[in-house]
């Protein structure tokens, strides 16, 4: 395990959704199984990387051979990424909730029979943008994801600029693709030199190809 091309490289991977509490028993979240992030962490570890895997409450179990840090919220995920220490690369595959509930209740909100509860929201930190724009100690390679439903390459290219990351792995998550929650993915890798579309393949195969490409970029 520890003898591949990524031996001695520290790589942070975020994965899964975040859960933002409404009260102690309720939350808001994005849909995310954690399958692609988990596969990427496994592939990177398979190439010898020292992987810190920061995961929200995902459906799939974390891979073996990585350092697992379990979190619930976006704030906790950012703190865990910052606590992970200097990294050679970072891959942000998590489906982070864009907002948290600003008026989350300490006690379970009761059905009173008349007034409905009103939620107010606060914006969550953008972990990918925060790390991409670090002035010192930025990982050499920062990889983000873009799940889009239309105009995938145009939106993902704009996202790469806006966030300041090096690569964006873009995919089409329109319901008719069956990609969300499924075992296959069809991705386009957007870098400073252009867009590279890969054929549809298993999420494991995407992870292995991406891990090899990361190894070429940082070694
Ligand atoms: O803006 P959008 O959510 O589409 O960007 C997706 C990319 O940004 C993913 O790589 C995701 O992990 C990352 N992200 C993040 N923190 C957020 C929102 C998104 O790291 N608060």
UniProtKB/TrEMBL annotation:
Domain DNA/pantothenate metabolism flavoprotein C-terminal: 6-216
Region described as Phosphopantothenate--cysteine ligase: spans on this chain: 11-219
Entry cofactors: Mg(2+); FMN
This protein's UniProt keywords: Decarboxylase, Flavoprotein, FMN, Ligase, Lyase, Magnesium, Metal-binding, Multifunctional enzyme
Pathway of action: Cofactor biosynthesis; coenzyme A biosynthesis; CoA from (R)-pantothenate: step 3/5; Cofactor biosynthesis; coenzyme A biosynthesis; CoA from (R)-pantothenate: step 2/5
EC number per UniProt: 4.1.1.36, 6.3.2.5
Reaction equations catalysed: (R)-4'-phosphopantothenate + L-cysteine + CTP = N-[(R)-4-phosphopantothenoyl]-L-cysteine + CMP + diphosphate + H(+); N-[(R)-4-phosphopantothenoyl]-L-cysteine + H(+) = (R)-4'-phosphopantetheine + CO2
Chain sites annotated for binding CTP: 98, 108, 125-128, 145, 159, 163
Highest taxon above the source species: Bacteria
Note accompanying the cofactor annotation: Binds 1 FMN per subunit.
Any one GO molecular-function label of the UniProt entry: phosphopantothenoylcysteine decarboxylase activity
Family: In the C-terminal section; belongs to the PPC synthetase family. In the N-terminal section; belongs to the HFCD (homo-oligomeric flavin containing Cys decarboxylase) superfamily.
Cited function: Catalyzes two sequential steps in the biosynthesis of coenzyme A. In the first step cysteine is conjugated to 4'-phosphopantothenate to form 4-phosphopantothenoylcysteine. In the second step the latter compound is decarboxylated to form 4'-phosphopantotheine.
UniProt protein name: Coenzyme A biosynthesis bifunctional protein CoaBC
Species in which this protein is naturally found: Yoonia rhodophyticola
Residue numbers of the full-length protein present here: 179 to 397 of 397
């Amino acid at each position: 395990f520890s003898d591949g091309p990524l031996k001695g490289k520290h790589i942070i991977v975020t994965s899964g959704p975040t859960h933002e509490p409404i009260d102690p028993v309720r939350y808001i979240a994005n849909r995310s199984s954690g399958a692609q992030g988990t596969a990427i962490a496994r592939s990177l570890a398979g190439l010898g990387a020292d992987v810190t895997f920061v995961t929200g409450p995902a459906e799939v179990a974390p891979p073996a051979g990585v350092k697992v840090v379990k979190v619930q919220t976006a704030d906790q995920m950012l703190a865990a990424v910052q606590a992970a220490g200097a990294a050679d690369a970072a891959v942000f595959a998590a489906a982070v909730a864009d907002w948290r509930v600003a008026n989350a209740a300490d006690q379970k909100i009761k059905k009173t029979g008349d007034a409905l509860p009103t939620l107010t929201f606060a914006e969550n930190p953008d972990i990918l943008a925060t790390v991409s724009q670090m002035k010192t100690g930025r990982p050499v390679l920062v990889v983000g994801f873009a799940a889009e439903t239309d105009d995938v390459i145009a939106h993902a290219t704009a996202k790469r600029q806006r966030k300041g990351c090096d690569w964006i792995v873009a995919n089409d998550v329109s319901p008719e693709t069956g990609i969300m929650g499924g075992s296959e993915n069809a991705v386009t890798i957007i870098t400073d030199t252009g867009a590279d579309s890969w054929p549809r393949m298993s999420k494991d195969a995407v992870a292995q190809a991406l891990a090899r490409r990361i190894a070429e970029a940082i070694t």
